[in-house]
């Protein structure tokens, strides 16, 4: 329950706001940033939710904006914070980018959306596809019969009836993101696979879909034996279209899909993963004048796969200058804004290994505090097509619609870095050499 | 501002007014947009009310929405004029287009002008029975809006009964909004002191809710789950049934649905008798909780705060999952801090090595605050796991060797706790610590090192020299350092009286004559009298054996923990504070407090709860703090495990706070009890102690410290024994 929602610029000035209940006067919006600044000044951390004088402030950050919700009750914090994120998502889908300017240009439609997405402080419809059916940027006359899409209140609130396609097709993208942390002695300390099955659905009518995966638990419950490998997903999350009770019963994934693009499910595995791309760097500091890096990168997957668009971020001191690079493959760039250099390799073949060297000048006068270099880890971005780390497979996708058309499912697999693929393997040359974990 | 001010004569508003009355439709619409734009940037456009109102009757739905938006904003300042809009509203509720009907009823409920309310009831009655579910779901919430304005009208018109019937609606979204409305009314009614249960959930309703749960939208599920949490089951079969039906919701992609489901299961699991089932539910809860960490950071933080509570109740919940809480380099600080706390909670003999190498890594990051907290976490790990203490000490020594000032200081503070827990085990470390004496400039670090020197005075050859340094600068030091210096010098004197006579004389002199802190002065007097009357007793007091410290398993009292677990995902569970402490200054709060004032007992329970939180919080903090007399330091830094701060939210609590701090005897009390607030608990023990010391007189008359105006506030069972522990420790 939220009494008021506002979008603020970085100076704390409200760009747009909507009151849902009048127990919190809008004047409280402008108190938000001063409180945040006070907290920062006192050295306290600013958390997403805090309370002041009986008013609860819940906020998130999106680029240069604060999205703020105020309430006086013991509100459902998770619900409100998520709603704010959903609001961002919807606005981004409407305006491509959400920033001060797009808010000023579109205030009319944002008011409309705020009116539709929340009522009396309770979230209502937040599916942007459905909202776009009756809240559009072009105005139109009432004669044109804008009616609430049945979907808004339907049991199937995510799909409208009467959708028609000449060619019925479904595209499935299985994307696995690998998060992993390698410590300075070369061991994997933490690793997880975040998988996601994304769908592009171009199907007519109200189709019933059933998705079959090589899910170990499913094989066990149905007593069937798997051909090939079965995987054990630790936790699965579904789009609201999937029948959860059915999944709980017999692990069947059955659903009526929304139209167009959406994420059908996500899953998590915390099985240990070998770093697909291994990077280590030897750093040599020459007293207060220059620093040298020797970076080794190795593709630790099968020869027949290859990684695309590999980007290796190696952190350097903030004040490094005059970069010189030499790489056995790819290109290297200095990114002073990130305090790192980036080694880009367009295509990295499996089991291949490459080296690069970098040389930077350093200012000769350094403060004492600087000797404590911040130890950002090396991070890597990559994509490996036609490959999943977990070995997940789509066994079938059954599509049944009462008109009885045939539809074609297409499946694509890809493995990429997650938001935290980092290696703490940049070591001073004097330290012991790293022995990579195999 | 006034409705009678007449139309503006010049300026932008004048032009807008002309445009609003233009004969061209497009021009009028553009003018409305400009008005709204001005409203958005908080320019006053209330003077245009009549002109805008003229544009309300239109078949352009966008224009209608804009006019409605304008009305919502200014209805309160122009109540007389709103009346003019009523006709159009009522007419719109009969429009053939359900979108218009819903819009009209939704906006009417938001106008919040007394005058219009009476006209709301008839159309609302109609809309509640509309054949379009979109209109019905909007009307359902409108009842809650009406209740907020004028509860009598809702009751007179029988809207509550209508809502009750609507729970059986065929459309799950209507059911969800009906549930939300009834819950909202229930909260408002309870807050205003009504004893009538506006939303009593019967077993028939329960079944309807369980059916609707699987069909409704994500937010609807949250509303229904919240209602399920309130249901009182009749037997364990029913509780099991609810849990089983709710568990599939753990798989929902929306984190607030997952947390709401966790809440329902945590509540109804209390009545599940089968251990097997309980275990099964707990096992199913773990993976979804871990997955919550793949959400955006703000959501992660809410989840982490809740996971922290869940772990206090069920430590086994995530016992194998410590690694998922390792901090990512780019995590915001607020996420890292929560993760640290949870990691320490999950630490055990099997994973302590991984944890320590992680914490050591964090201690070399750039953010000073995070570094300090990581070092604290190392100390907590040492105290929690006996077998790992030595490894922790080695890590701390490595950190001290970095010579980075704030790292060293924090490490010294942490070492003090380790000495406290494992006396006479790591004396070899003392020289390393003393070598860093000159680098300490923070009071807490200084005080910690002085405490260590005092404690091991007999084993440190040059203890008198080291302490002498602090005695020289005594008056310049902060009070905590002065207190520790005083105690340490006395300890030294009692252990090595030969060469420290001068020193103790000097420090007692300075402390009693030149010091302006009453705490320091009083303590100096007490030591002085003790030493001059009965050195044997002085030894018994000052050098007594201290009870070992330990990490508390919970940061809040058991009752409060149960209460918070029943409110998982709410602000209370995020703050780890009972609702009364942060809801209460608002409209509802003052009302309820006034109403409650006749019912003092109630109020006292609220205050009591608040104090339990504070006490428990301080306990958590203090166990790691000096536990010999240092009441003065308490509450200075409400950080650490509990991070509970006290809000004087109810008058009783405020009184108590005021009472304790203005109590002149408090200083005396604080010497005896760690938690100064708990005067009454300290009183008998203090008196007894005084007797045992043989009629020793405190100051002028040694009155037993009087508790503040209210009787014993703390009946907290967990707080009291350790309270007395502290006293025993002293005597």
UniProtKB/TrEMBL annotation, chain A:
<keyword id="KW-0968">Cytoplasmic vesicle</keyword>
<dbReference type="Pfam" id="PF00928">
    <property type="entry name" value="Adap_comp_sub"/>
</dbReference>
<dbReference type="InterPro" id="IPR018240">
    <property type="entry name" value="Clathrin_mu_CS"/>
</dbReference>
<protein>
    <submittedName>
        <fullName>Clathrin adaptor mu subunit</fullName>
    </submittedName>
</protein>
<dbReference type="GO" id="GO:0030131">
    <property type="term" value="C:clathrin adaptor complex"/>
</dbReference>
<feature type="domain" description="MHD">
    <location>
        <begin position="167"/>
        <end position="424"/>
    </location>
</feature>
<dbReference type="InterPro" id="IPR022775">
    <property type="entry name" value="AP_mu_sigma_su"/>
</dbReference>
<dbReference type="GO" id="GO:0006886">
    <property type="term" value="P:intracellular protein transport"/>
</dbReference>
<dbReference type="InterPro" id="IPR036168">
    <property type="entry name" value="AP2_Mu_C_sf"/>
</dbReference>
<dbReference type="InterPro" id="IPR028565">
    <property type="entry name" value="MHD"/>
</dbReference>
<dbReference type="Pfam" id="PF01217">
    <property type="entry name" value="Clat_adaptor_s"/>
</dbReference>
<dbReference type="InterPro" id="IPR001392">
    <property type="entry name" value="Clathrin_mu"/>
</dbReference>
<comment type="similarity">
    <text>Belongs to the adaptor complexes medium subunit family.</text>
</comment>
<dbReference type="GO" id="GO:0016192">
    <property type="term" value="P:vesicle-mediated transport"/>
</dbReference>
<dbReference type="InterPro" id="IPR011012">
    <property type="entry name" value="Longin-like_dom_sf"/>
</dbReference>
<keyword id="KW-0653">Protein transport</keyword>
<dbReference type="GO" id="GO:0030665">
    <property type="term" value="C:clathrin-coated vesicle membrane"/>
</dbReference>
<dbReference type="InterPro" id="IPR050431">
    <property type="entry name" value="Adaptor_comp_med_subunit"/>
</dbReference>
<keyword id="KW-0472">Membrane</keyword>
<keyword id="KW-0813">Transport</keyword>
From TrEMBL, chain B:
<dbReference type="InterPro" id="IPR002553">
    <property type="entry name" value="Clathrin/coatomer_adapt-like_N"/>
</dbReference>
<dbReference type="GO" id="GO:0030117">
    <property type="term" value="C:membrane coat"/>
</dbReference>
<feature type="domain" description="Clathrin/coatomer adaptor adaptin-like N-terminal">
    <location>
        <begin position="10"/>
        <end position="534"/>
    </location>
</feature>
<dbReference type="GO" id="GO:0006886">
    <property type="term" value="P:intracellular protein transport"/>
</dbReference>
<feature type="compositionally biased region" description="Polar residues">
    <location>
        <begin position="713"/>
        <end position="725"/>
    </location>
</feature>
<dbReference type="GO" id="GO:0016192">
    <property type="term" value="P:vesicle-mediated transport"/>
</dbReference>
<dbReference type="InterPro" id="IPR016342">
    <property type="entry name" value="AP_complex_bsu_1_2_4"/>
</dbReference>
<keyword id="KW-0813">Transport</keyword>
<keyword id="KW-0472">Membrane</keyword>
<keyword id="KW-0653">Protein transport</keyword>
<dbReference type="InterPro" id="IPR026739">
    <property type="entry name" value="AP_beta"/>
</dbReference>
<dbReference type="Pfam" id="PF01602">
    <property type="entry name" value="Adaptin_N"/>
</dbReference>
<dbReference type="InterPro" id="IPR011989">
    <property type="entry name" value="ARM-like"/>
</dbReference>
<comment type="similarity">
    <text>Belongs to the adaptor complexes large subunit family.</text>
</comment>
<dbReference type="GO" id="GO:0012505">
    <property type="term" value="C:endomembrane system"/>
</dbReference>
<protein>
    <recommendedName>
        <fullName>AP complex subunit beta</fullName>
    </recommendedName>
</protein>
<feature type="region of interest" description="Disordered">
    <location>
        <begin position="701"/>
        <end position="731"/>
    </location>
</feature>
<comment type="function">
    <text>Adaptins are components of the adaptor complexes which link clathrin to receptors in coated vesicles. Clathrin-associated protein complexes are believed to interact with the cytoplasmic tails of membrane proteins, leading to their selection and concentration.</text>
</comment>
<dbReference type="InterPro" id="IPR016024">
    <property type="entry name" value="ARM-type_fold"/>
</dbReference>
<dbReference type="GO" id="GO:0030276">
    <property type="term" value="F:clathrin binding"/>
</dbReference>
């Amino acid at each position: 329950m939220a009494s008021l929602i506002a979008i603020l610029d970085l100076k704390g000035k409200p760009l747009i706001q909507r009151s849902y209940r009048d127990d919190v006067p809008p004047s409280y919006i402008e108190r938000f940033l001063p409180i945040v600044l006070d907290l920062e000044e006192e050295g306290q951390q600013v958390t997403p939710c805090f309370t002041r004088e009986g008013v609860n402030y819940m906020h998130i950050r999106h680029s240069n904006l604060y999205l703020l919700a105020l309430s006086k009750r013991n509100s459902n914090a998770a619900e409100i914070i998520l709603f704010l994120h959903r609001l961002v998502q919807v606005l981004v889908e409407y305006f491509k980018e959400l920033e001060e300017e797009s808010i000023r240009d579109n205030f009319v439609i944002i008011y409309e959306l705020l009116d539709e997405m929340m009522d009396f402080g309770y979230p209502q419809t937040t599916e942007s596809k459905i909202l776009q059916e009756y809240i559009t940027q072009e105005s139109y006359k009432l004669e044109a019969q804008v009616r609430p899409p049945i979907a808004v209140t339907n049991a199937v609130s995510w799909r409208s009836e009467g959708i028609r396609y000449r060619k019925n097709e479904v595209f499935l993208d299985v994307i696995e993101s690998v998060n992993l942390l390698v410590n300075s002695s070369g061991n994997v300390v933490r690793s997880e696979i975040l998988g996601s099955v994304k769908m592009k659905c171009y199907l007519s009518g109200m189709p019933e879909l059933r998705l079959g995966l090589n899910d170990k638990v499913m094989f066990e419950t149905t007593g069937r034996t798997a051909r090939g490998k079965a995987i054990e997903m630790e936790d699965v999350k579904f789009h609201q279209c999937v029948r959860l009770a059915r999944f709980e019963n017999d692990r069947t994934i059955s659903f009526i899909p929304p139209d167009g693009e959406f994420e059908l499910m996500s899953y998590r595995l915390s099985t240990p993963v070998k770093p697909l791309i291994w990077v280590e760097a030897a750093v040599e500091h020459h007293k207060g004048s220059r620093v040298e890096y020797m970076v080794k990168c190795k593709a630790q997957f099968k020869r027949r796969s290859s990684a695309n668009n590999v980007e290796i971020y190696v952190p350097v001191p903030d004040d490094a200058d005059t970069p010189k690079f030499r790489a056995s493959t790819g290109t290297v760039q200095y990114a002073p804004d990130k305090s790192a250099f980036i080694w880009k390799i367009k295509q990295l073949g499996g089991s291949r290994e490459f080296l690069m060297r970098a040389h930077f000048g350093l200012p000769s006068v350094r403060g004492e505090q600087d000797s404590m270099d911040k130890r950002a880890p090396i991070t890597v971005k990559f994509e490996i097509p036609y490959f999943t780390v977990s070995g997940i497979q789509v066994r079938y996708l059954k599509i049944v619609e009462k008109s009885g058309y045939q539809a074609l499912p297409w499946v694509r697999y890809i493995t990429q870095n997650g938001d935290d693929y980092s290696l703490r393997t940049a070591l001073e040359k004097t330290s012991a050499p790293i022995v990579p974990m195999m | 501002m006034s409705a009678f001010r007449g139309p503006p004569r010049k300026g932008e508003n004048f032009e807008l007014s002309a445009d609003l009355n233009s004969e061209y439709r497009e021009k009028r619409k553009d003018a409305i947009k400009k008005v709204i734009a001005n409203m958005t940037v908080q320019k006053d456009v209330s003077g245009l009310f009549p002109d805008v109102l003229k544009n309300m009757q239109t078949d352009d739905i966008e224009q209608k929405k804009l006019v409605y938006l304008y009305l919502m904003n200014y209805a309160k300042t122009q109540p007389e004029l709103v009346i003019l809009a009523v006709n159009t509203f009522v007419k719109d509720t009969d429009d053939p287009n359900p979108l218009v009907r819903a819009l009209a009823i939704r906006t009417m409920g938001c106008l919040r002008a007394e005058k219009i309310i009476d006209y709301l009831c008839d159309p609302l009655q109609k809309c509640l029975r509309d054949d379009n579910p979109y209109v019905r779901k909007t009307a359902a919430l409108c009842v809650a809006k009406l209740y907020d304005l004028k509860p009598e009208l809702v009751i007179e018109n029988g809207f509550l009964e209508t809502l009750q019937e609507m729970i059986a609606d065929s459309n799950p979204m209507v059911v969800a909004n009906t549930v939300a409305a009834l819950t909202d009314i229930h909260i408002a009614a309870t807050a205003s002191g009504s004893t009538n249960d506006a939303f009593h959930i019967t077993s028939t309703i329960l079944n309807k809710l369980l059916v609707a749960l699987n069909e409704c939208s994500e937010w609807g599920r949250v509303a229904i789950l919240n209602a399920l949490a309130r249901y009182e089951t009749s037997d364990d079969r029913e509780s099991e049934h609810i849990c089983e039906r709710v568990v599939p919701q753990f798989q929902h992609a929306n984190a607030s649905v997952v947390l709401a489901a966790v809440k329902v299961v945590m509540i109804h699991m209390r009545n599940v008798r089968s251990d097997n089932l309980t275990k099964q539910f707990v096992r199913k809860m773990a993976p979804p909780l871990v997955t919550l960490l793949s959400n955006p950071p703000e959501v992660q933080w809410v989840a982490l705060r809740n996971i922290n509570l869940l772990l206090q109740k069920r430590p086994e919940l995530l016992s194998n999952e410590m690694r998922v809480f390792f901090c990512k380099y780019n995590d915001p600080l607020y996420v890292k801090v929560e993760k640290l706390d949870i990691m320490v909670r999950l630490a055990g003999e099997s994973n302590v090595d991984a944890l320590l190498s992680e914490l050591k890594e964090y201690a070399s990051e750039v953010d000073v605050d995070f570094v300090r907290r990581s070092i604290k976490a190392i100390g907590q790990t040492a105290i929690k796991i006996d077998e790992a203490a030595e490894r922790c000490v080695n890590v701390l020594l490595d950190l001290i060797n970095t010579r980075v000032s704030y790292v060293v200081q924090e490490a010294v503070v942490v070492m003090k706790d380790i000495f406290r827990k494992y006396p006479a085990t790591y004396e070899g470390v003392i020289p390393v610590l003393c070598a860093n004496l000159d680098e300490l400039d923070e009071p807490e670090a200084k005080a910690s090192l002085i405490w260590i020197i005092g404690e091991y005075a007999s084993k440190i050859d040059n203890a008198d020299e080291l302490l002498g340094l602090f005695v020289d600068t005594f008056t310049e030091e902060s009070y905590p350092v002065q207190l520790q210096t005083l105690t340490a010098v006395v300890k030294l004197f009692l252990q090595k009286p030969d060469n420290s006579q001068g020193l103790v004389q000097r420090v007692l002199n300075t402390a009693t004559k030149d010091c302006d802190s009453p705490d320091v002065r009083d303590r100096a007097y007490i030591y002085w009298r003790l030493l001059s009357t009965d050195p044997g007793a002085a030894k018994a007091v000052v050098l007594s054996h201290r009870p070992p410290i330990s990490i508390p398993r919970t940061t809040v009292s058991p009752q409060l923990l149960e209460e918070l677990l029943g409110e998982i995902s709410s602000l209370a569970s995020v703050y780890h504070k009972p609702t009364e402490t942060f809801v209460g200054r608002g409209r509802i709060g003052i009302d309820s407090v006034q109403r409650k004032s006749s019912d003092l007992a109630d109020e006292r329970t609220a205050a009591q709860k608040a104090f339990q939180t504070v006490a428990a919080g301080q306990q958590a903090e203090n166990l790691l703090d000096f536990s010999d007399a240092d009441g003065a330091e308490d509450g200075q830094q409400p950080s650490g495990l509990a991070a509970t701060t006290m809000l004087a939210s109810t008058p009783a609590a405020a009184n108590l706070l005021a009472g304790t701090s203005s109590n002149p005897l408090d200083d005396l009390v604080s010497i005896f009890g760690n938690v100064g607030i708990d005067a009454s608990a300290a009183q008998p023990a203090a008196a007894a102690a005084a007797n045992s010391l043989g009629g020793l007189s405190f100051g002028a008359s040694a009155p037993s410290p009087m508790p503040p105006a209210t009787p014993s506030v703390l009946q907290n069972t967990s707080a009291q024994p350790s309270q007395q522990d502290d006293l025993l420790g002293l005597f």
